Each structure stands twice: as C-alpha cells, then as structure tokens.
Amino acid sequence: MGKIRVEGLKKSYGTNQVLKGIDMQVQEGEVVCLIGPSGSGKSTFLRCINRLEEITAGRVIVDDQDINDPKTDINKARENIGMVFQHFNLFPHFSVLKNIMFAPMELGKMDAAKARDTALGLLERVGLSYKADVFPNQLSGGQKQRVAIARALAMNPDVMLFDEPTSALDPEMVGEVLGVMKDLAREGMTMVIVTHEMGFAREVADRVVFMDGGYTVEEGPPEEVFGNPKNDRTISFLEKVL
Ligand code: ADP
Ligand code: MG
C-alpha cells in the first residue's frame, strides 16, 4: 500500500489546466525526485498533496486518508506532512529555537519543555545548535533552510515534501542542505523532492519522475532515467540541464 497515492489528479486555474491527470504512488521510505521544466506543474503537484491547493479532479490519499474528503481533518493530516519551500518561510520575529518549537506547542502536541528538548535535538541533527538563540536574519541561506527542515521535522511527520529547497541558495551552501536531506533519506523518511540537483537525484532518489506539461512523462530508477532516457522530452530536458 502506498504511503502517498495520487489517482487521476487534475488541477486547473481558471481555464489553464496545469495538472492533466497524474497517477503516482510513493511507498513508505521511498525517496522520489520530481524533475522537469519550469511551469510543468511540479509545485502545484506538491501543493495538492497537502491540500494547499483544491484539486479539480482525482484523489490524493496520504496514510489512507483522502486529503480532499470534507470529513478529513486537514489540519490533523497536515501534521503528518512536512513541507520545505524554496524561500524557507521562517518566522522572522521568532528565534531559531522558537521557530522550531512553535508548531508543536501551538497545536498542543508538546509542552514547552518537551518542545524545547525536541528543537534542541533537531538543531543538533542539522548542525546548528550554536544558532538556537539568533533570529533568521542572522543566518545564511543554507542555515535558514536547515532550520526550516528542522522545523518541519518537529511535528514528527511521516512524509516530507521539498519544493526546490536549494534553488535560492548560493552554490557553496547547497551541499549542507542536501547533506541533511541525505541523512533523512538514509533514516527512512518518505520524501518527495522537486529539485534541479541532478547529481543529488541520481545519488539519493529511489525513483525519478520527469514531469512536463502537466503529465508525468517518464519515471524509473535514476540510472535509467538519467542513463537511458526513453522519451524525447526527457532526453531534450536532460540535454539542457546535465
Ligand atoms: P513548476 O513548479 O513546475 O515550475 P508550477 O506548478 O509552479 O510549475 O506552475 C504550473 C503552471 O501553473 C504555470 O503555468 C503557472 O503559471 C500556473 N500557476 C501556478 N500557480 C498558480 C496560481 N496560484 N494561479 C494561477 N496559475 C498558477
Ligand atoms: Mg515550482
């Protein structure tokens, strides 16, 4: 049974059909990297998984819960789905520690002492214990993104969604963020990652999915998609980015 099951997913904005019928299953512990040209619907697809977008047709099931069923408590479901964005989206007026403690406390998951312990443990995991008391504007981009990952992990999610987590970073900071993501993958986290880091996808992904024009055009193990792409559009995309 897939941890994430997407069936016949369509999404339109007005007359613009962005997702044209996507089927995808992600197994527990699987790392799926989503690649494809700008505008192909990758971000929209990710946002449909935790219902940041209302879908036009189809179904999205996470942990056996239909995300779009009116009976589903979407806030509860989202607690289980961590998301990391290109632009970090940290709370600027909270310290690093408080950024991580906020959701578990606000949602009544943890008392302050437990939230603090959890946050400190996560900061250690992402190598930023020494930044606990600073504010986001005192961090580099790579540090901000590592805090954003720690913050998403604080809710102890089953699934993590990443939307181009390194695209806004200076090149020298990409590695530290990918390193944290590699650790997560190794620990068995179920992850869907939109990325332009083909080297990372090749190394870490169990499966690579190429999206174009609102469809998943080709998918397979990274060796196959990168080493022996079959679809013309995949070939032409990879020629441009590799
Ligand atoms: P990608 O992440 O692959 O670059 P997106 O999912 O961001 O692609 O966008 C796919 C298409 O959907 C684009 O044509 C974009 O203009 C359109 N789109 C995305 N979000 C919205 C929105 N909130 N309202 C209207 N159109 C949107
Ligand atoms: Mg995008």
TrEMBL record:
Residues 4-238 form the ABC transporter domain. PROSITE patterns: ABC_TRANSPORTER_1, ABC_TRANSPORTER_2. It comes from the Bacteria. This is Amino acid ABC transporter ATP-binding protein. CDD domains: ABC_HisP_GlnQ. Keywords: ATP-binding, Nucleotide-binding, Transport. The keyword DNA-binding does not apply. It comes from Paenibacillus lutimineralis. GO terms for molecular function: ABC-type amino acid transporter activity; ATP binding; ATP hydrolysis activity. SMART domains: AAA (SM00382).
